[in-house]
Amino acid sequence: MWAASQVPVEQVLEMLEGRQAANGNWHCPRPKRHNNGDATASAKIRDGKFRCFKCDGEDVEGLRLVMDTKAVGPYEAAMWIARNAAAAAKA
Known about the structure:
- By secondary structure, the chain is mainly alpha-helical.
- It contains four helices and two strands.
């Protein structure tokens, strides 16, 4: 799990198909939880952690973001991050 925790949250967001808006905010990778499908970027990254102001009660790191988005446990989330980070590095 240590290697997964070293992947920057911005990279995790990109792997979750999140995208950054022109104003620097991020679109949440869980748009189904938003009334407008997160048409307006509702999230920020601060101190290396992500926070959607609709979905998250606090800032979360990449591992926890994957756990919540994919509805998996910590081991599965760490493996998902490691696999996708490795694939991105090869591309």
